[in-house]
Amino acid sequence: MSAPIVWDEQGMPHSVAFDDKYFCKDSGYEEAIYVACQGNHLRERFSGLDPDVRGIFTIIETGFGTGLDFCCVWQLWDECAPKTWGLHFISVEFAPLSAEDMARALSLWACLSPYKEKLLQEYRSASGGIGEFSFEAGRVRLTLVFEHVIDALRIIRDRGFSPDGADALLLDGFAPSKNPEMWSDAVFAGVRALSRPGTTLSTFTVAGFVRRGLAAQGFEVTRITGHGVKKNVLTGVLV
Ligand SMILES: C[S@@+](CC[C@H](N)C(=O)[O-])C[C@H]1O[C@@H](n2cnc3c(N)ncnc32)[C@H](O)[C@@H]1O
Fold it and tell me: Which residue puts its alpha carbon closest to atom 25 of ligand 1?
């Protein structure tokens, strides 16, 4: 069964279960670029990958939702990364959107259209458990673990989906006040276990217990200026 969604008067998706929005009303795309991509310095890091090396850049996200972050990262990857490198985007989701709702949400941004179409072609075939999808002859891989975040993070570790630890983490699971389960110490320990020194993170929340929980796992976190209505967002690096 897919996650129940209501659409507000501006055509933005809203979760019925969590009474929260999937992305910022005025500028979801710009915010995703700002928090997920700039927050992890992805443009500089993708552009700086050594073209003489064949490597994998791994991103782990908590909360796949509409796939907006994935499409934004993929678009940037297309723009900047050398062809010798592969992107592996791993995400967790326990209440997947229907393909129809995902299509409607991503249609808000015409510039994402090519990514949306390719994503949906694969996403439509997902049937729970673990979905492993490959795009552009394997240059971009998406692994979706359709489980509760705690189980999903354990599965990612046990199945060796990210053997060398993530390069970047995107923490995105609705507001901590609406969904504290997604921001528990067990989740912070789970993402820590999938990290290595130098792993960066970004998230839209600067809640004190989130900052403290991540710091307790060894992440050095920094509040940076936010985007749009958000005064601050959080970035971090595992030291
Ligand atoms: C704000 S949305 C994520 C938006 C997403 N990053 C995007 O690009 O559209 C949060 C997502 O986290 C998922 N989620 C919430 N609690 C979860 C849990 N305990 N385990 C797994 N996924 C969860 C929700 O179903 C929702 O899709």
Answer: 95
